[in-house]
Each structure stands twice: as C-alpha cells, then as structure tokens.
Amino acid sequence: MKQVTEPNHLQLNKQGQLKHFLTLDGLDKALLTEILDTADSFIEVGARSIKKVPLLRGRTVVNLFFEASTRTRSTFELAAKRLSADVLNLNISTSATSKGESLSDTLQNLEAMASDMFVVRHSQSGAPHFIAESVTPNVSIINAGDGRHAHPTQAMLDMLTIRQHKGCFEGLSVAIVGDILHSRVARSQIRALKILGVSEVRVIAPNTLLPVDIESLGAKVFGCMKEGLDNVDVVIMLRLQRERMEGALLPSEDEFYKLYGLTTEKLKYAKPDAIVMHPGPINRGVEIESAVADGPQSVILNQVTNGIAVRMAVMSMAMSGHVAGRDA
Ligand code: NCD
Q: Fewest Cβ atoms closer than 10 Å to its Cβ: which of 67, 81, 134, 233?
C-alpha cells in the first residue's frame, strides 16, 4: 500500500487547520494542545444528563472498521452521536469486500450516500492515507488505527489522561512497556510525548519486540523493568499483539510475565504517585497483574472515558477545518 511520508499537505488545510487526522508526524505542539483543550471542553458534555451538542448536526459519519475493535469503535460512535451527527457503522470484514467488492468501489458507494467523514481502521499501514488521497474533497478521514503505523486518537486520549493527572508534560518521565514492535499505539504515543515536550520517553521490552528504528524516534531503550521503571511518573503497558506476530518472538507468556509483566512489586520501582495506563484490551496475568489493573494507581478506565472527548474534539476540528479548506 502506498505510504505517504509528508502527510501534512494532506491533513492540514492552507490555514494550518486539521482536515484529516492521519498521523501525529509533522504536527506541532500548538495543534496537539488545541486538541487537548477542545477535548477538555467536551468532558463536561459527557457529565450532562443530555449528552449532546449540535456541532455535527446534519453531517454523516461512517465508521469503516476493516479490523476488530470494541473501545475505539464504540467511543467513535458515541463521540459522533454526542456531536449530533448521523452515524453509520460498517464492519467491512463481514460486509461488501467479503463479497469481492474492491475498497475503492465500497468507498465510492459510501461517497454516493453523501458521507462527510470516514473513520477508518485497517490492518494495512497507510490505508487511511490512501483513502484520504483518493476520496472526493468533500470527505474528511480520521485514522482509527492502521497496521503497525499509527493510532493518533489513542495517543491523544492518553495525553489527555496524563495531563489530567500530572498537570503538564515538562519534567515527566514516561515508560512504555511490552510489545513495542507491533504497536501503532506506542509509535503514536512516542511522537505525541516528544512533541508535547516530556523530559524522557523510555521503552522497556525484550530485543525481539523492539523495532530497529526505535531510538531514532527519541525513546531510550531498557531491557529490564528495574532500571526502566526507576523513578518514572507514568507507566504505559501494552498487549502482546499475537495477531501481528510471525514466528516465535517470545519463549513463553509465563516467561514474559515474569520479566515484563507489571506486578505490584515491580510498580514500586516507579514514583509512588506514578499512574498506570493501558490502551486495552488488557490481558490479566500476561502483561499486567489484576491487582495493578484494578489498583489505585490505574487510570485505565479514565482513558476510555477520555476517548470520547478526544474523538469529539478531533472530529469537530477536522470537520470545521475541512469545510474552511474547501471554501478557501
Ligand atoms: C489498540 C489497537 O487496536 O491498536 N487498542 C485500542 O485501540 N484500544 C491496542 C491493542 O489492540 O492492543
């Protein structure tokens, strides 16, 4: 699949506003902060008895999920509904493409239904870029996770959660632990953390689960939890992404848990007020102990709640940037 290296000609309009949200690469601190501040303003909407604002009224949002998803798909749906959009959910793995229709034919049919926004999850890295380049200029594309490449709304909901608990990014030390190699979440998180100016991003993983270019992203590599977690403010755990693994990258899950699983004991290496995060789905006893996942330092469910506000922010910003770009 064609990979676009310079995405900003595609995702920003001439005024520098977001019109597609494909990757964090190339975005600046001001734009990321605008997403977080806009999301903050939507958190209050989720606490109301009538959880709706009219920003996307009359717009049609299509959730195009070519890969399984629970949290991401349902929070995108809720976000669009809370913005008053009409929402169509398509699980493509069980629909037209399985009857032989090509991706571009499926897209053309959806465009013919006057859709305004596609939220796309795909197993191929670069699929949302490809779609953004090929759809009519009327449609805005949001990346909901593509292959191992990027998951920008997940990273932004993680940043919102960190900011809520730690106040600011400067001075923080953040460790990301586990299957970095297959993780689009880790790639987007590292980008976001660097753009927002944290002091230190660490990755902790066995060599077999690290991408070769990891240090070029600005992350410091640690092979063990004792050193890697020492004095960190934030611990982000990742799932072993078995569906993307080819061959034996690990001796066994038991061995992985012993060395890299986050237990109450290992969490003591981090600062006493460190927060524990996980994008989900969590695998208890594989990468995280239940006592930690459900413990006082865990903010895993806050991440899920924040996902709605961040997705509302990104969708409303992209829609207004898209319309402004078209009218310019
Ligand atoms: C992640 C994903 O799909 O990339 N989950 C998510 O979006 N909440 C991480 C994972 O599947 O482990």
A: 134
Q: Kindly report the pTM of this predicted structure.
A: 0.94
280 φ/ψ sector (left φ>0, alpha ψ -120 to 50, else beta): left
Quickly list H helices, the chain: 8-11, 29-47, 71-82, 103-112, 127-134, 152-166, 184-196, 225-228, 253-260, 264-267, 290-293, 300-327
Among 3.40.718.10, 3.40.50.1370, 3.60.15.10, 3.40.190.10, what is the CATH number of 152-300? 3.40.50.1370
Q: Are 2 and 129 in contact (CB under 8 A)?
A: yes
Centre of ligand 1 from the C-alpha of residue 314, in Å: 18
Enumerate the CATH 3.40.50.1370 domain ranges in the chain, comma separated: 8-150+305-323, 152-300
Q: Which CATH architecture has domain 8-150+305-323?
A: 3-Layer(aba) Sandwich (3.40)
Tokens of 140: 């805005």
For residue 189, the SS3 value is: helix
User: Residue 322 corresponds to which tokens in the numbers above?
Assistant: 């898209």
* Whether the CB of 241 sits within 6 Å of ligand 1: yes
Residue in 141, 155, 101 with CA at minimum distance from that of residue 279? 155
Would the CB of 189 count as within 6 Å of ligand 1?
no
Find out whether the beta carbon of 239 lies less than 6 Å from any atom of ligand 1. Answer: yes
Residues 7-63 have pLDDT tens digits of 688 999 999 999 999 999 999 999 999 999 999 999 999 889 999 999 999 999 999
Strand 117-122 relative to strand 173-177: parallel, antiparallel, unpaired?
unpaired
C-alpha closest to that of 64 among 104, 36, 25:
104
- Please determine, for residue 96, whether its predicted confidence score (pLDDT) is greater than 70: no
8 Å CB contact between 156 and 35: yes
